[in-house]
Amino acid sequence: MLRSVEQKRQGPVTSGGEDPRVTELRSAVSRLRRELAAHPGRFADRSIAEEELAALDAMAAGGAPEIMRLRRSLLLVAGAIGSVSALAPGVSRVRDAVNLFGEPPRG
């Protein structure tokens, strides 16, 4: 099967038409958003984490997100959630999903 230049740039595509990296990212972000919403504790930067998770979801929903923007949002989420150990596994899943998109361009 021949692939277009655009498909090669975006990465693999499942038979359903969605890049499996995007599917993984959306799943990880959705799960962390649910965990964050259910977390009873209060912390100062909760709204930042919620906003950046929403931004990650929007980027993933758009198809082929920019690696630098993904990494920026991941950094903000990790910094905002910080020491809330109950949410650390969810942040790790999101980081792993972002890493599926590769390293940011150097330069």
What does this structure look like?
The chain has 107 residues and is mainly α. It is built from five helices and no strands.
- Determine the number of helices (DSSP H or I, runs of at least 4 residues): 5
Radius of gyration: 15 Å
**Topology, number of strands:** 0
What structural category arises from helix and sheet content?
mainly alpha
Q: Give the SSE string.
A: HHHHH
Mean pLDDT: 86
Distance between the termini: 34 Å
Determine the fraction of residues in helical runs and give it as a percent range. 55-70%
Please summarize the sheet with the most strands. none
What descriptors fit this protein?
mainly alpha
Short description:
The chain has 107 residues and is mainly α. Helices cover 64% and strands 0% of the residues.
